[in-house]
Amino acid sequence: MILEIWYDIIMNLNDILKTINQWKIEAACFRNDGWVQAHYVSQLEKILEEVLSALKVAQEPKNIKVLDTEETIIKDPILKNLYIDDVES
Predict the structure, then answer these.
(1) pLDDT tens figures, 46-56
(2) For residue 19, which of 55, 54, 49, 47 has the smallest C-alpha distance?
(3) 71 vs 83: CA distance, rounded Å
(4) How confident is the model at residue 64 (pLDDT cuts 50, 70, 90)?
(5) Of 44, 64, 84, 85, whose Cβ has the fewest other Cβ atoms within 10 Å?
(6) 84 by DSSP, 3-state: which?
(7) Is the separation of the CB atoms in 30 and 54 below 8 Å?
(8) Which burial class, exposed, middle or buried, applies to 81 when counting CB atoms under 10 A from its CB (0-12, 13-18, 19+)?
(9) Contact 5/18 with Cβ under 8 angstroms?
(10) Which residue has the higher pLDDT, 6 or 70?
(11) C-alpha closest to that of 46 among 10, 20, 9
């Protein structure tokens, strides 16, 4: 089961990388007119924007604040206002 999930993750990553590589080729291909090349450049720019945004969020320091009630609130952009009870300090 775990190996199947891992295989799916690897295959999905390979599919993503293959697609990005194909878009890179199409964006630079002299046989494509300017509109087609611009479409692929636009797709690559969208991917770049999302990846940079994801890296920024992943690399931000996490702010953890212990409240008086012994609850912990995690101020993470992805897990906004998530409360966890009974967390040891």
Answers:
(1) 999 999 999 99
(2) 47
(3) 7
(4) low
(5) 85
(6) strand
(7) no
(8) exposed
(9) no
(10) 6
(11) 20
Q: Which residue has the tokens 């190996």?
A: 3
Contact residues for 85 (Cβ-Cβ < 8 A; gap 6+): 70, 71
Decide if 38 contacts 26 (C-beta within 8 A): no
Beta strands, E only, the chain:
63-66, 71-75, 82-85
Structure tokens at 16: 């993503």
Residue 87 · residue 72 · CB < 8 Å: yes
Tokens in use for 74?
A: 């995690």
Give Dmax (Cα) for the chain: 66
